[in-house]
Write a structure and sequence with these properties.
InterPro entries: AAA+_ATPase, ABC_carbohydrate_import_ATPase, ABC_transporter-like_ATP-bd, ABC_transporter-like_CS, P-loop_NTPase. By secondary structure, the chain is α/β, with parallel strands linked by helices. The chain has 17 helices and 22 strands.
């Protein structure tokens, strides 16, 4: 099946999200749509999938114009979509999720779950997915949940698959597995639209690359193009892909963590008696395969973890046992790993989100009254300073692209007088231009004397930002090593091997 988009235009009021965009996807081709967050990539694919109606332009399948009134029409035409945020029911099984919306019935009108199970097994066996049709989705790792989304689309005979930022929530290992799956789908004749802003992934699997910027196609590129060439085309200016920072000038010991143990409500231990320290003006980066205690560690630092034992001392003052508000008042800035759930209130404005951690005191609140003028002035300053691309400070946070949402979180956390910055997955799902900016802000915080704890699943980011690297495996510290430690060594440590010469 050959898919073509011709002069697609989509407007939201005065904002032109897509401006006469054209592209084609041939059978058995991976066509990459590359662009910054907010460039219009997802809007274009939502038009293709019937979620939005184009104001101008045509969708053609095998040269025949299509008129999709909703996703059902797109699916019936052979188009499937794997969303960045999965469209799965956590308490349903894999088979139940796959048949949802396309239920078949058996005897006396009962749901034919056996047919759904057979379909899951058939597709899983064909592509080596190893997905159990009776497993509950909430019990599956993120990478396997994504396979369920792919199975859903293929079970409805999709001939063109759209992957919308598919690696934003995946570990490096899961990303490699997805790349292999995409190649298998390509070999089977499936056309793929791959939406991303990650240059390494583009060069690894794309057959063709279309670059869009601010809603307009600005060119096509070859997969042989360098990262620097692709980044410049995507952002519209040369982008510094490496983090430039002077050697750390550590000051006094600022953060001391001793015998820290963190458990969940069921008593399962996620952090098992770890100890480490961070000096003022130093970045300690935490590496590890996701699910080895990184989330629980960052939550313990700000009072979010339910059951914490041991000690966390910041400037000699104990943090364990304090409320989240008390932790913030102690000078901790927290960039959470999930900006949409933990970092922002999506139906609040940008201005309101910028004052979330100071909604009870000066400078924005006095004697129980909100000073709207001060908040408006502050928010406009931060929009400009942190290059948040939005119509204005009254824009709802949920209407921003992922990268701009992240900038709002970073702006809020770094606009206070900090004694410690905890940054969890600070650039997850963020384009290269925003990554460059956020990295500079983190390094600037370090250079101002703030101790920084960075947690990331991206080894390149770990190595670029860190002054020292701590590797976690099953909730324990495998070792603490210098920032120039090789990827191979870090990979072994992430599998549980302790290197020689590391800190205990």
């Amino acid at each position: 099946m050959r898919l073509a988009l011709r002069d697609i235009t989509k407007r939201f009021g005065s904002l032109v999200a897509n401006d006469h965009i054209s592209l084609t996807v041939e059978p058995g081709e991976i066509h990459c749509l590359l662009g910054e967050n907010g460039a219009g990539k997802s809007t274009l694919m939502n038009v293709l999938y019937g979620l939005y109606q184009a104001d101008e332009g045509d969708i053609l399948i095998d040269d025949e114009p299509q008129h999709f009134k909703g996703p059902g029409d797109a699916m019936a035409a052979g188009i499937g979509m794997v969303h960045q945020h999965f469209m799965l029911i956590p308490v349903f099984t894999v088979a139940e999720n796959v048949m949802l919306g396309h239920e078949t019935t058996g005897f006396a009108g009962s749901l034919d779950l056996d047919a759904a199970r057979r379909r899951v097994r058939e597709i899983s066996d064909r592509f080596g997915f190893q997905v159990d049709p009776d497993a509950l989705v909430e019990d599956l790792p993120v990478g396997v949940q994504q396979r369920v989304e792919i199975i859903k689309a293929l079970s409805r005979d999709a001939e063109v698959l759209v992957f919308d930022e598919p690696t934003a929530v995946l570990t490096p290992q899961e990303t490699d597995e997805l790349m292999a799956i995409m190649r298998q789908l390509k070999e089977s004749g499936t056309g793929i639209v791959f939406i991303t802003h990650k240059l390494r992934e583009v060069r690894e699997v794309a057959d063709r690359i279309t670059v869009i910027r601010r809603g307009t196609v600005v060119g096509e590129a070859s997969p042989e193009a360098s990262n620097a060439e692709l980044a410049a085309l995507m952002v519209g200016r040369p982008v510094e892909l490496k983090v430039h920072k002077d050697p750390a000038q550590p000051g006094e010991r600022a953060l001391v963590v001793s015998d820290l143990t963190v458990a969940d409500e069921t008593g399962h231990v996620h952090i098992d008696g770890i100890s480490f320290h961070i000096d003022a003006g130093e970045i300690l980066a935490v590496a590890g395969v996701q699910g080895n205690g990184q989330t629980e560690l960052t939550e313990a630092m700000v009072g979010l973890a339910p059951h914490v034992e041991g000690s966390i001392k910041l400037d000699g003052r104990e943090i364990v046992g304090r409320s989240v508000r008390k932790a913030l008042e102690a000078g901790i800035g927290f960039i959470p790993e999930d900006r949409q759930i933990e970092g922002l209130v999506s139906n609040f404005t940008i201005a309101e989100n910028l004052m979330l951690n100071r909604s009870y005191d000066k400078p924005f609140v006095s004697r129980g009254s909100l000073n709207l003028k001060k908040l408006d002035t502050f928010a406009k300053e931060k929009l400009a300073e942190y290059d948040v691309r939005a119509p204005g400070v009254s824009t709802l946070a949920g209407q921003l692209s992922g990268g701009n949402q992240q900038k709002v979180v970073v702006a809020r956390e770094l606009s206070r007088d900090l004694r410690l910055l905890v940054a969890a997955q600070p650039t997850r799902g963020v384009d290269v231009g925003s990554i460059e900016f956020i990295h500079k802000q983190i390094v600037a915080a370090r250079d101002s004397g703030v101790p920084v704890l960075v947690v990331s699943s991206e080894l390149d980011e770990i190595s670029a930002l860190a002054d020292r690297i701590m590797v976690l495996y099953r909730g324990r510290v495998v070792g603490i090593v210098p920032a120039d430690t090789s990827r191979d060594t870090l990979g072994l440590m992430m599998a549980g091997e302790s290197p020689e010469g590391s800190e205990s």
